[in-house]
Amino acid sequence: MALLADDDIARARGGYDGELPSEAFAEIDADPRNELVVAISGRMIVGTCQLTFIPGLSRGGAERMTIEAVRVRSDLRGAGIGRRMMAYALGRARARGCAVAQLTTDKRRAEAHRFYESLGFVASHEGMKLAL
């Protein structure tokens, strides 16, 4: 939760009071189509992301992986942690036979866009959201 709160854009969305939403964590943990990835250096949590595997009808019925809530400690960005987390995530997708890996990133995150593009991601679609 501290990594989510250590982000101006995420913090502005609210809900990051430092407490782990235990019900949400339990639901994610119990769902075999979801994985929480935690990057650790020494005894310190330095990064995290959530992987969700989605069955689909397109691409011959292949599964796709969505990568969400990618966070690296702000003082450690640029040290290769995000690149190693993404390599792990893409390896998980390949191991499951996913046809595509997808993610969304806020339009204000120019550095994140460059990072994802350096990994081979292409801004091929326009994403839309509706707050409920």
Question: How is this structure best described in words?
Answer:
This protein is α+β, with helices and mostly antiparallel strands and 132 residues long. The protein is 36% helix and 24% strand. It contains six helices and four strands. Strands 1-2-3-4 form a four-stranded mixed beta sheet, sandwiched between helices. Strand 1 (34-41) and strand 2 (44-54) form a beta hairpin. It is globular, with a radius of gyration of 15 Å.
Question: Features of this protein?
Answer:
132 residues
The largest sheet is: 4 strands, mixed
Main-sheet strand order equals: 1-2-3-4
Report the mean per-residue pLDDT as an integer: 87
User: How far is the first residue's CA from the last residue's CA?
Assistant: 22 Å
Strand proportion, as a percent range, falls in: 15-25%
Helix and strand sequence = HHHEEHEHEH
Helix content: 25-40%
User: What are the segments in which pLDDT stays under 50 over at least 5 consecutive residues?
Assistant: none
Task: Work out the number of β strands.
Answer: 4
Rg of Cα set = 15 Å
Task: Please render the helix and strand layout as text.
Blueprint (H helix, E strand, L loop, with lengths): L1 H4 L2 H6 L8 H9 L3 E8 L2 E11 L3 H4 L2 E9 L8 H16 L3 E4 L6 H9 L14
Parallel strand pairs: 3-4
Antiparallel strand pairs: 1-2, 2-3
Structure at a glance:
By secondary structure, the protein is an alpha+beta fold. It has helices spanning 2-5, 8-13, 22-30, 58-61, 81-96, 110-118, and strands at residues 34-41, 44-54, 64-72, 100-103.
